[in-house]
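OP here, attaching both records as promised.
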Amino acid sequence: MFSLLRKKSSFGFVMLLTIYLLAAPESFARASQQHAATPVSEIVVWTYDSFTSEWGPGPEISGRFEEASGIHVRWVVHGDAGEVLARLLLEGVDADADVVLGLDQNMAARALRSGLLEAYKPVGADKLFPESIFDASYRMIPFDYSYFAVIYDSERIVQPPTSLEALCAPEYERSLILMDPRTSSPGLGFLAWTKAAYGSGWKDYWGRLAPSILTIADGWSSGYGLFTAGEAPLVLSYTTSPGYHVEYEDTERFKAALFDAGHPIQVETASLVAAGKHKENAKKFLDFMLTPAFQETIPLGNWMYPVIDIPLPDSFRVNPKSDTPLWPEAPSDAELSEWAVFMAERLER
């Protein structure tokens, strides 16, 4: 019975539509042409996975920017930041992107050398913390920063490590989760950190560290997910990570291990893609990026510090800032390949 009624209803609708089209073909054609001719004002932003996750700042930023400008943000995710850069370099001028968001200073040499990024000094750049600006050409514009650190589970680790060397101690055997420096910005930052600390002896250090490593994840999201699932009591992350657990889990169980020699800073950036199809929309997005409407989503969305002076959430009280910010030199492509071969041999043993 219900099926028969649906069929009759559909038949009646088709007849009415046919009559309407025969009676008013010109008005229908005009309406169709007007609808087809209305462009969707948009911008294509490439970024890493956690930025656009349901708990990341991306969805909130999309809504705020579209409300302010009428421009729709189409996010395209390519894993972690290292994968975003690799994809950009691979596709070159054919990359379907207007803005690349998430590259940091350790990726700057390769990104800037490519010639794929265009200089643009956004409105509001004078409000940036001066220490966050590492590219005076503004081809890489800061939007947040933090410090790399080893986060530990205080219910499982009584005495946290206080140095890179301490991570090699026997009590931390198979206790540490790291990220691959070829695909992950924290992984790249950690390799740069060890190179700065040990110089030409950096491979010897990694040889000593290998027994402490449980796994090397492809990106921060997967690595930190293993940590929160209890797979290991130590993980590479940021000094700002403990605040997340205070804010959403009401616990101070997870803490940053402060190293006496200091911690590398990471400054994340957004860049105007020179071959982008929506250049003016992209510039409006970069202007918006340095306003409070964007920046206030960073602390509780991306768990990093904003790059302009705005109030921080109370949960940031547990996030230590390094007294000694380090700016280690980024590893070369050759050193990344050397690391991969060296670690493949060590971790197979």
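Record two, same layout:
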Amino acid sequence: MIDQLISTPFTELTGVRHPVVQTGMGWVSGPRLVTGTANAGGLGILASATMTFEELEKAIVEVKGRTDQPFGVNLRADAADAPARCQLLIEYGVKVASFALAPKPELIAKLKEHDIVVMPSIGAAKHAVKVASWGADAVMVQGGEGGGHTGPVPTTLLLPTVLDALRNAQSDIPVVAAGGFFDGRGLAAALSYGAAGVGMGTRFLLTQDSAVPDAVKQLYLERGLTDTVVTAKVDGMPHRMLRTDLVEQLEGTSAIKRMGPTMRRTLEFKKDSGMSWAALLKDGRAMKKAQGRTLGQMALAANTPTMLKAGLVEGDTDAGVLASGQVVGLIDDLPTCQELIDRIVTGAAEELRRAASYVL
């Protein structure tokens, strides 16, 4: 375990030793991975969207029993029980609340009253300015290289536009850059842009602390830079994942032919989540309002947790999908979280010193 080598506004804000965030990946970011990240000095984030309320509470208790370091929980701001889940964070003293969509100002204020750092993920400069004006403490910006739901603009272009917009709005909240990061060079580059840290998903998925089946990890390790695809055929929104036979099949299938499997997976998700039809419909209406999804897209959205679970938990790549960033083509090993974070931070410090030597 290395000492702190790099101090940024993000490490000061959250109390972590290193400016490295393990993002909240559904079915992947559970207690084991979050604990490994936290004990290594990074910020581990539990993914609660694929957990029931009871499972989330159990996961928080487990992490707190295995580490005394700061960690976070990723929440769906549009979920019907979002306020209740936020109350869990307050009761257990979780350090960071991250959101895939911006929470309402009153929810941000409630969390901040209890010294919880609020960090929404955003995909556009205007959204960063908006959540900053609402009181967000930090933002994570993911470029198009990232896995899962993603946008069309690469990190190298999106990050500076977000930094400039926040600066013009006279906001100095820390920005965490995500999408395409896997080593010390990436962290050094992000810090040079003006970011205060990096977020990584695929790189943490491919560690010994990740609970993803070993056979699935090996499948990831065999892939190259061109072996991911962005498709809207899974849940109606652009989603980057590994190119598999199932994904190729979905890409070539009409909406009518996908209807039967869509309904079957919706029923599976209802059973797994324990949600009533009324709760599902309420979440669907909230999703439609927050994201502007069509009825068809909302029906497809219920597929995502079930299909990701099949691939990432059950290891059934014939029935499941595997979210992945393009960076998968540059990863060739399975370190522990400790080994990974140590070498990223050490490498970044070396790169920053080398770059500084060029300055006259």
